[in-house]
Specification:
The complex is a heterodimer of chains A (about 650) and B (about 290). Chain A has about 650 residues and is α/β, with parallel strands linked by helices. Chain A is built from 16 helices and 27 strands. Chain A has a seven-stranded mixed sheet with strand order 15-14-16-17-22-21-20, with helices on one face. Chain A has a five-stranded mixed sheet with strand order 6-5-4-7-8, with helices on both faces. In chain A, strands 9, 10, 11, 12 and 13 form a five-stranded antiparallel sheet that branches. Chain B is an alpha/beta fold and about 290 residues long. Chain B has two domains: about 40 residues, no CATH class; about 220 residues, Rossmann fold, CATH 3.40.50.410. Chain B is built from ten helices and ten strands. In chain B, helix 2 crosses helix 4 and helix 7 runs parallel beside helix 9. The chains are: A alpha/beta (about 650), B alpha/beta (about 290).
């Protein structure tokens, strides 16, 4: 039997208390003269003996109760004898694009297979794939053949390397395992990019051995097309940015293709670093995009890039005037700094509002004649609309007519924070795969509760009332914010999450997302509606139904055909930083990932039991049974104590 | 009862007891009349006014009633058990059993005297330790009280032997009141009562018991010593043996009741922490039946 918190066993010393009380009370010193003992004969002696026995039994029960309580608080658990002697290995597979470097994947796979061969019957192994986010290809199992076949079938992808998540997950899984020997087999090329952000001093729990292979040598020839840019002028040239990593100078051939037809081919001299190469060509009129490729080097995956030929457009947002600093306009205009997918803002026209642009209304005048007539016509025509509720009578009346009930929230001493954010909602695509904490930190001092059958909550006030909602009406998407957009109502405008949220909301509402045509593997592409996503030219051809957004796993040229019939073309390329195969400069630091098991002299470890013990104890929950036994003992003790009480 | 015990003499104790007892009765307990005048007796509340001698009242300005020969024919013998078990007192607030029995006996004798009955005394030890024949004079009352006051309980007694001895000296058709805890072997006691029954005596058993004997509400353990046989000791835990004790003691009381019933007598159970008026009532009831 093992104890998770053995310190509580010291509490068993309390059994001295009932023992002391027992012996203090059990000595009959009174001499009692009684008229006759004829009624207290043998049977009374028997009763007394029985009573004495019951008192001893009561004492034993009291001691048992104390021992059981101490045992329950000490959290007992059993360590299986087999588990204590077996080995467990987790293979962390770096499937990033850099692993496609010539020979790198096969060589590491052979090394790992050799490591797995050391495991015997009863040992466990698992395969943990690192990208796009760590996931178990094969969970911990004793079926080593399945692990080996899983590893054989695994292939590197096109994601960007990041080791921290996989290292943490593998460490937790191994730490939670009761096996005596815990091995983390690190199947990665130790790319410098992957180790960025990893705390080498606290990477793995104690007792885990990490097997890191030799750092992969830098490739002899490595260049990557990191950007493609086409001038807006008709018949203009294409500029390809080629980054040469090695050798310092090289001659490479660049080919531009469209629809399988070679448009141009050039042989160029490259120097280390970025080389902008103009590529004049005459595109076919029906071409969706261009495929630009270098002759293959040691890492062929980044030698090809795609460019969608659909021109990028600038989305327009119409707003009513704001009093004071117009944070919303500043946030919208900041999108133009991105180069693509930029937005421009304009004041709401006095005449009828065009249906194309996104309209944002924040103030009462938009709900008064004659503007309210423009607003009604705009909504009826299907125009995208974003409303910030300010509580004016005109606004509340208009919303009430459209089936939305708005009631002001009573002010409180403490600011509110929005809760229950729907991470799957497209309006939060900017935060997809990242933390929602920036949104949770935003403070609100004034707000309104939203209620209506057509509202789909995106976020709620702390009491669960809807604060931010998608307003689905007749197939249109409108956004309704239950708070005014000014500093008196919220600190969101000066919060880091404000600009990404406004960008994403505007793009989603105005269907501006497709205006950006250069995406990277791993990014989430917002889509305005449901439809079919299909590869036109990709390393991993596929076709699938999508809705809201998609996260391409491979580079290529893709088309999205919405259910409404609208068709858009997207180019997805390799993250440029992934092409840099430079290894971590200090291999000695990687050795520090492994921390020896130090049961003594480690204060932290003394205070916190090993995770494997916690997991074993949590699975077995023996303390519950000990408490149950203790409860039974208490009941019996109460019954006996009532019979033996003096 | 504690206050009664603190009175200076047994005679006074008996008088208080009787006065307290009679104050609750509206009718005089005296019954019967006869043409043969015997003596005057001071009027007591509740006496029939028709029996007041108004001439004497006119001369002496005091109320007296006339007593006749027939009323003095009842002989009451009271028997006091002086065994060691009667020397028991469970706590300060209650009387010792022997003291209580002494007061009960004296009160009965006084009541008998006031009724004009003759009263006698038997002291029960290992045998009949003392005996006073039945009379009703004032001097006899003094002898009675004097003998009663010097009695002290000690050692093992045999109530049955004493009763058999008493049967030999008591005239037939007397009333015999036995104040005891009756810790006697049941067959022997049964034999003695049967002997008394043979002489047509009216029997009243005054079962004198300490509250602890009745309730056994002891809350501690200790060494119990038998009052009549000090060598007999038991280490017991009182709460654990209480149930068994009460069962057996209840059976014993039932047996006693049955014995007295079979002997044509009555048994009254007296607690030393309560006034023994039941015994006096029983005496009067028996007397009424007899007369």
């Amino acid at each position: 039997m093992n104890w998770l918190l053995p310190g509580f066993l010291a509490g068993s010393a309390l059994i001295g208390l009932p023992v002391l009380l027992h012996f203090l009370r059990s000595k009959p010193k009174t001499i009692l003269h009684f008229p006759t003992l004829r009624f207290l004969g043998e049977s009374a002696i028997r009763d007394t003996r029985k009573h004495r026995l019951l008192r001893w039994l009561t004492l034993l029960l009291r001691c048992l109760i104390i021992l059981l309580l101490a045992a329950a608080f000490a959290r007992p658990f059993r360590v299986h004898a087999t588990a204590a002697h077996r080995r467990v290995a987790v293979v962390a597979i770096d499937n990033s694009m850099s692993m496609q470097a010539r020979g790198r994947w096969e060589e590491m796979k052979s090394r790992v297979l050799a490591g797995l061969a050391e495991l015997g019957e009863g040992d466990q192994a698992a395969l943990l794939v690192m990208h796009p986010s760590p996931w178990w290809l094969v969970p911990l199992t004793t079926d080593l053949a399945r692990v080996r076949s899983g590893l054989q079938a695994a292939q590197p992808g096109f994601e960007k390397t990041h080791y921290a998540g996989a290292l943490r997950l593998a460490g937790e899984a191994l730490a939670a395992n009761p096996a005596k020997t815990k091995i983390l087999i690190w199947m990665a090329d130790e790319q410098r990019l992957g180790w960025v952000g990893v705390d080498m001093a606290q990477a793995l729990p104690p007792g885990i051995k990490i097997r890191i292979g030799e750092t992969a040598p830098s490739p002899e020839r490595q260049a990557a097309i990191v950007a493609l840019q086409k001038s807006a002028a008709p018949g203009g040239e294409l500029v390809a940015t080629v980054r040469l990593f090695s050798p310092m100078q090289d001659r490479r051939t660049i080919t531009v293709q469209a629809g399988g037809r070679v448009l141009t081919e050039q042989t160029v001299s490259l120097r280390a670093g970025d080389n902008k190469i103009p590529l004049p060509f005459s595109p076919a009129k029906d071409a969706d995009g261009l495929r630009v490729s270098l002759d293959a080097d040691d890492l062929p995956a980044d030698d090809t890039a795609w460019l969608a030929l659909q021109g990028a457009s600038v989305g327009t947002v119409l707003l009513d005037p704001a009093t004071g600093t117009d944070f919303l306009t500043h946030a919208l205009l900041s999108t133009r700094m991105l180069g693509v997918g930029g937005l421009k803002t304009s004041a709401l026209p006095e005449k009828a509002w065009p249906v194309g642009p996104l309209v944002i209304v924040r103030d009462a005048p938009a709900f008064r004649p004659p503007r309210v007539e423009h607003l009604d016509r705009f909504v009826e025509a299907g125009g995208p609309l974003w409303i910030f509720v300010d509580g004016s009578d005109e606004e509340l009346g208009w919303l009430d007519r459209h089936g939305v009930n708005v009631s002001p929230r009573a002010p409180e001493d403490e600011a509110w924070h929005l809760r229950n954010w729907d991470p799957e909602h497209p309006v939060l695509a900017a935060f997809s795969g990242r933390s929602l904490l920036p949104l949770l930190d935003v403070e609100f001092y004034q707000g309104f509760d939203l209620d209506g059958d057509s509202l789909v909550p995106v976020a709620s006030w702390p009491d669960g009332k809807t604060a931010l909602a998608e307003w689905s009406e007749g197939g249109r998407h409108l956004l309704l914010a239950g708070f005014p957009m000014d500093r008196a109502a919220t600190n969101w405008p000066v919060h880091p999450s404000f600009v990404p949220f406004v960008h994403q909301a505007a793009h989603w509402l105005g269907s501006f997302a497709s205006s950006r045509n250069d995406w990277r593997v791993g990014e989430s592409i917002p889509l305005e509606s449901e439809g079919t996503w299909r590869s036109l030219d990709s390393a991993l051809p596929h076709e699938q139904r999508v809705g809201g957004s998609i996260r391409p796993a491979a580079p290529g040229l893709f088309e999205f055909v919405a259910d409404t019939g609208a068709r858009r073309v997207f180019a997805v390329n390799i993250p440029p930083e992934e092409s840099d195969l430079t290894p971590w400069p200090d291999p000695g630091q990687l050795a520090r990932l492994e921390r020896p098991d130090a049961p003594n002299g480690d204060g932290k470890r003394m205070a916190m039991p090993p995770l494997s013990d916690q997991v074993a104890e949590n699975h077995q929950r023996l303390w519950w049974w000990v408490f149950a036994l203790c409860a039974v003992a208490i009941l019996v003790e109460l019954a006996l104590a009532n019979r033996t009480a003096l | 009862m504690r206050l009664l015990a603190e009175l200076p003499s047994l005679s006074l104790q008996a008088r208080c007891m009787v006065e307290g007892f009679l104050s609750g009765h509206h009718r005089s307990p005296q019954k019967g009349s006869s043409v043969e005048f015997a003596e005057y007796r001071a009027y007591q509340p509740g006496d029939d006014l028709r029996r007041v001698d108004w001439r004497l009242y006119g001369r002496t300005d005091r109320l007296h009633v006339k007593q006749y020969e027939e009323e003095t024919q009842l002989r009451v013998f009271v028997v006091l058990d002086t065994s060691g078990s009667m020397d028991f007192q469970s706590r300060e607030k209650v009387m010792r059993k022997i003291e209580f029995a002494r007061i009960v006996i004296a009160a009965l004798a006084l009541l008998a005297r006031r009724q004009g009955d003759a009263f006698g005394l038997g002291i029960a030890g290992a045998e009949l330790r003392g005996f006073l024949s039945a009379r009703s004079s004032v001097s006899h009352w003094r002898s009675f009280i004097g003998k009663l006051e010097v009695v002290s309980p000690a050692g093992k007694a045999s109530l049955a032997t004493a009763l058999l001895d008493l049967a030999e000296v008591v005239p037939p058709r007397s009333m015999i009141v036995i104040a005891s805890d009756f810790y006697e072997e049941t067959p022997r006691l049964e034999n003695a009562l049967r002997r008394l029954r043979y002489d047509h005596h009216d029997l009243i058993g005054a079962h004198v018991l300490d509250p602890v004997e009745l309730d056994f509400d002891l809350d501690h353990s200790g060494t119990f010593v038998d009052a009549e046989s000090p060598g007999w000791r038991l280490k017991l835990d009182a709460p654990s043996v209480r149930r068994g004790y009460l069962e057996r003691f209840g059976e014993f009381c039932s047996e006693l009741d049955e014995l007295f019933h079979e002997a044509g007598g009555e048994m009254v159970r007296l607690r030393t922490d309560r006034a023994p008026f039941e015994a006096l009532s029983l005496y009067l009831a028996q007397r009424e039946q007899r007369l």
